[in-house]
Sequence to fold (219 residues):
Amino acid sequence: KNEVEQSPQNLTAQEGEFITINCSYSVGISALHWLQQHPGGGIVSLFMLSSGKKKHGRLIATINIQEKHSSLHITASHPRDSAVYICAPADGLTFGKGTHLIIQP
Amino acid sequence: DAGVIQSPRHEVTEMGQEVTLRCKPISGHNSLFWYRQTMMRGLELLIYFNNNVPIDDSGMPEDRFSAKMPNASFSTLKIQPSEPRDSAVYFCASTATGGFTEAFFGQGTRLTVV
Fold:
């Protein structure tokens, strides 16, 4: 079973700050998802990446397959970025416990 | 397509009652996953199907839980009898390929067993 660890578990920051969320896993994978869940809401897939870096707006995800590590960055954070961010190996079998992000105005 | 549709959105039931959760995957998707989400444990896979066939049900906690996928457009997750510790949000997700690429989640069913 792939052990997936995320850090930090909780993060509160001020609007405009640069945010980094980290994800590490124990078993090699071919790809990894970053998911976003707003309070009381559903889950949406932000990125699926297998190497290097992907960018979507203010969100940037990176992955190092050899080091079994991925990061999600948010530039110029905004209160609407407040959500839980979850990383998941692309087999869909295990998930990180999530990072609860709050961006204060 | 309306996306993955789950019903009901909320369910409150008494301990010992049977509960049935429903999921309609995106048309054309051939993999379907059932997850349970709690504050303590986060998201956990319960079972997944490929082409309507259960592939991995090792996450199903007990015999009280059962899941079926009678056809490509419908799946159910049943709990009988329900217990308070089953209270959680249950998500269904579907993908177009085997595995978890390009996964789409339903809005979830919030189950409360009292």
Observations:
- Chain A touches chain B through 21 residues (CB under 8 Å).
- Strands of chain A lie at 4-7, 10-14, 19-25, 32-37, 43-49, 52-56, 59-64, 69-74, 83-89, 99-104.
- The mean pLDDT of chain A is 93.
